[in-house]
Amino acid sequence: MSIALDTVDPLGKQADAPKKRKRALSTGAATSRSLSSRPGRLIVFFLVLIWTIPTFGILVSSFRPEIDVKTSGWWTWFADPSITFENYQRVLSSAPGDDNMVKFFLNSLIITVPSVILSVGIAMLAAYAFSWMQFPGRDWLFVAVVALLMVPLQMSLVPLLQLFTGGAHIGPVTIFPDLNLTGTYVGVWIAHVAFGLPFCIFILKNFVSALPKELIEAARVDGAGHAITFIRLVVPLSVPAIASLAIFQFMWIWNDYLIALIFAGRDKAPVTMKLAQVAGERGNAWHLLTAAGMVSMILPITVFFLLQRYFVRGLLAGAVKG
Questions:
Q1: I want to staple 240 with a disulfide (CB 3.0 to 4.6 A). Which of 119, 120, 215, 313 is the partner?
Q2: Angle at 115 between CA 104 and CA 196, to 5 degrees
Q3: SS3 for 174?
Q4: Distances in Å between the alpha carbon of 90 and those of 74, 84, 196, 290?
Q5: Which tens digit of pLDDT belongs to each residue from 82-126?
Q6: What is the C-alpha separation between 310 and 76, in angstroms, rounded?
Q7: Mind giving me the DSSP string for 88-130?
Q8: C-alpha count within 13 angstroms, C-beta hemisphere, residue 248
Q9: Among candidates 119, 261, 118, 114, which has minimal Cα distance to 182?
Q10: CA angle, 61 as apex, 58 and 66 as ends, to 5°?
Q11: Helices (H), 37-82
């Protein structure tokens, strides 16, 4: 009976879906034509130029001597160019601070890569469940997940830290044991995954639910279970969305300072904590901060350009959702 009700379309939604896709495609084509015109290209070039000026200023300042950085603007370099590698030498050495930049760089890799894999992987499983599996309270549970996006991150840091350091107890009953996760990579991984899952699930669910229903039904008719359908059908079709989300998660976790400051110990500190150390106690060593900032940008920029084509496809995916 439920199957028959699902196939009935009294409002003509299935008939309206191609029209919606056609309107979305026509709107996208009109926007593309507008941006491809000469005025459109000039506007885009101007916006890109304005957006990249601060980064270019950091790049120029990272090669300027300390006295020049502190006494004049970076644009004066063009009138009197002078280049030094002293800033990079000091940043990549053990000064300022006790450890060199390489150690913090590796810590950031160890923190970021597993956190991204876990958050995106778990979110992909949840997105499939919310989209193509029937279970009681599915819609309400998804609403609860989306509602977690409204919870400020700062409000959850202290309760989670207390949970990691002392566990959770109600009288003599232990609800959550004391795992002593502070100052470990595992604690930082759990924190990043927990705080990132609502956003990841929300993004991937919109994409997975937009996959053609006929493909899922055809897989079920052929005898494929949820595991086979997920691995062989849903995941390959969702590669653009997964790559786009992975880029966002990578950037956010790589540039995070607050979570690392609270959950990571001194030996597990990421590159963002090294940047704060380089700046000095009073922030007067910002000539070194420019060089450290450029070093920390290398990997995120590389990841973005390697996954750029998937990123664009992922952004456009779902634009024609019926």
A1: 313
A2: 120
A3: strand
A4: 20, 11, 35, 12
A5: 888 888 888 777 655 556 778 888 899 999 999 999 999 999 999
A6: 39
A7: HHHHHSS-SSSS-HHHHHHHHHHHHHHHHHHHHHHHHHHHHHH
A8: 19
A9: 261
A10: 140
A11: 38-62, 66-71
